[in-house]
Amino acid sequence: MEDGNGYDSSMEMEGGNGYNGEPTESCLSGFVDNGSRDSLRYYLSRRTVLEMLKDRGYAVALSEINLSVQDFRAIYGQDPDVDRLRISISHQSDPSKRILVVFCGPGIVKVNVIRSIISQIVNRDTLTGLILILQNQITSQATKAVGLFQFKVEMFQITDLLVNITKHVLKPKHQVLTDQEKEKLLKKYSIEEKQLPRMLKKDAIAQYYGLERGQVVKVTYSGEITESHVTYRCVW
User: Both 151 and 52 in a single domain?
Assistant: First the structure.
């Protein structure tokens, strides 16, 4: 029964029940996370990294991506050891390409931390890429040390990986073109790559796919797919 303010008193039932007579407690309990905040952060960021690597063509098992937070905590605990969270994986079409993902601790990343990470890498000569997940600042000296590595090093803040940006409902679909597809596109419109709209290397999508300068991305917007719903951007 509604009062003058539009409030329906029938919603308020004896025993704390709400809609359809369900106990309010049981409805809300599904949204309560009884685990630690750190374990949830590690779980979400690790899942996003696995999805990112799969989108880049690496051989990531779906069972790893679909791991529940409860199973994650059962394996790694409520206070995960960052060393156990490391991921070493090869590319699906080119097994010689191997990438390593390292989660850094909560402290400031200094040169000694970088040296320690490198000293622990097995088969360093076969590594083609390294991803560092940071939880704090990295010093200028440590950044310089990273720049001396023979393989590509990417750095992400853990807070940027709590959500996979490519899955947002408002984000258009991005597809990285192969070299052959890029040349076909340029030939079709009789243009040079510098005439394409630009995407900076620091753009979130460019970082997600690990794009390098000169690579082209096809961007498809929602709706009926016509040529007007598609654009191409070159990384600079």
Answer: yes
- Which residues partner with 138 through β-bridges? 109
pLDDT at 170: 82
Q: How many domains does the chain have?
A: 2
Same domain for 143 and 207, yes or no, is: no
**pTM score:** 0.81
Question: Is 110:139 a contact under the CB 8 Å cutoff?
Answer: yes
pLDDT average per 10 residues of sequence, the chain (236 residues): 48 45 51 85 98 97 96 97 96 94 96 92 87 97 92 96 91 92 95 93 95 94 72 93
How far is residue 19 from each of residues 6, 7, 16, 104, measured CA to CA in Å? 16, 14, 10, 45
**Three-class HEC string of the chain:** CECCCCCEHHHCECCCECHHHCEHHHHHHCCCCCCCHHHHHHHHHHHHHHHHHHHCCECCCHHHHCCCHHHHHHHHCCCCCHHHHCEEEEECCCCCCEEEEEECCCCCECHHHHHHHHHCCCCHHHCCEEEEEECCCECHHHHHHHCCCCCEEEEEEHHHHCCCHHHCCCCCEEEECCHHHHHHHHHHHCCCHHHCCEECCCCHHHHHHCCCCCCEEEEECCCCCCHHHEEEEEEC
Same domain for 148 and 54?
A: yes
How far apart CA 212 and CA 103 sit, in angstroms, is 23
| CA-closest candidate to residue 205, choices 168, 174, 180, 227 | 174
The answer to whether 79 and 118 have CB atoms below 8 angstroms apart is: no
